[in-house]
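FIELD: query
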Amino acid sequence: MFVLVRDNNVDQALRVLKKKMQREGIFRELKARRAYEKPSEKRAREMGEAIRRARKLQRKQAQREGLLPGPKPRPRTTEKRPAGPAS
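FIELD: result
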């Protein structure tokens, strides 16, 4: 994994790197490896994650079918972003 540093903007490159690492699940993996997790705790955690995924899937399906209202639209900001280099 690599990130390009444009115009010596290391702060932006660091933000991009952190976002990529977050998407890949590296931070979650590091946290999990910090301490030993008992097999029973691991099963309980994985079961909870599976239940959350299933509920999310059901909620999205119900929204698509019109049984539940969709997500609230994000408020639009009127601030102008500073002009930067074209990506």
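FIELD: remark
The two ends are 19 Å apart (CA to CA).
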